[in-house]
Amino acid sequence: MDKIPLEVSSDESPIRFRDCFSVRYIQSAAVLCRLAYGIEKEYAGQAGSAGPDPDLLLRHEAFSLNSILSSVAFLESTINELYADAADDAYFFADAENEALLRAISDGWRNEKNFDRAPLLNKYQNILEIVQMPPFEDGDQAFANVRQLIEIRNHLMHYKREWVVIHENKSPGSREGTTSEKFAKILRRKFAVNPFAAGNLPFFPDQCLGHGCAEWAIVNSVIFTDAFFRRLGLPVPYDGIRDELATR
Fold first, then answer.
1. Count H helices, E strands: the chain?
2. Burial class, 77, CB count within 10 angstroms (exposed 0-12 / middle 13-18 / buried 19+)
3. What is the pLDDT of residue 141?
4. Which of 18, 56, 108, 235 could join 130 in a cystine, given CB atoms 3.0 to 4.6 angstroms apart?
C-alpha cells in the first residue's frame, strides 16, 4: 500500500506520511471476493449432493458479506481522504492546475463538521459542483449501482429484525413490501445469486449475499470512482494496485 511522505529533513527529523485506507479497503474487498468465488467454484455443479459443510458455508458468507462492506468503506474513505488532503494543504501533484483544484475544494467547503455529516454520495456530488464539474445524473448506471450498494450496507450496518414470510399469496397493495422484496425488485437481475441459497429462501439476505453481489460491488465502486476522478482530472489513489483487484 502506498504511503505518501511529507517531510524528511534529516536522519534526526521525524518522518510524516499520510496513509491511504481507501486502498486497503478495496484490496480487502477483492481478496475476500476471490475467496468467496473459490468456494462457489469448488462446489459448482454439485446440486443434490451434501454440499459444503456448515463451517465452509459460514466462511463463504463471511467473505461475501465483508467484501461488500469493504467496498462501501472504500467509497467513503476515498472521498474523505481527498477532502482531508485539500483541507490540510497536503498536495502531492506536480501539476499546478491540480493543486489549484484541491485548493478550490478546500476554499469551497471549509466546514469540516458539515462535510462529515453529509451523506456519502452528496460528498462526491458537492465536490464536483464546487469545482464546477457536472455532477452525476440519477440515470448514470454506476451512480445508481453504488447508491443501491450503499443501501445494502446501511441495512446491514443498522440492521433491524423484521418478519420474513415465505410462500405468501399477496394481493396487490395488501401491505408494504419487506426488505427482501424491495432489494429483489432492484437487484435480482444485476448479478448471480448465492448458489448455496435454496430457491424458497428470501432474496435478501440469503440469495443476495454471495460472490455475485461482492463482485458487482467492487466493479461498480471502481467504475464510479474512476469516473469521479476523471471529471476532476486527478489521478486515482489506487491506480498502482489495479492488478490486485481481480474478483475471481
1. 8, 2
2. buried
3. 96
4. 108
CA 113 to chain centre: 23
Task: For residues 108 and 114, give the distance between their C-alpha atoms in angstroms, rounded to a whole number.
Answer: 12
C-alpha cell at position 171: 394481493
At 237, list the grid cell. Answer: 489513489
Question: Could you identify the residue written with the cell 440469495?
Answer: 207
Cβ-proximal residues to 176 (8 Å cutoff; 6+ apart), any chain: none
**Lookup result for grid cell 534529516:** 10
DSSP 27-93: HHHHHHHHHHHHHHHHTTT-TTS--S-HHHHHHHHHHHHHHHHHHHHHHHHHHHHHHHHHHTT----
- Report whether 51 contacts 196 (CB < 8 A): yes
Per the CB < 8 A criterion, the answer to whether 164 and 178 are in contact is yes
Other C-beta atoms lying within 10 Å of the C-beta of residue 41: 12
Contact 71, 29 (CB under 8 A): yes
- Name the pTM for this structure: 0.88
Give the mean pLDDT of the chain.
Answer: 88
Distance CA 139, CA 202 (A): 28
Of 216, 179, 178, 170, nearest in space to 194 by CA: 216
Confidence of residue 17 (pLDDT cuts 50, 70, 90): confident
Cell 446491514 maps to which residue? 156
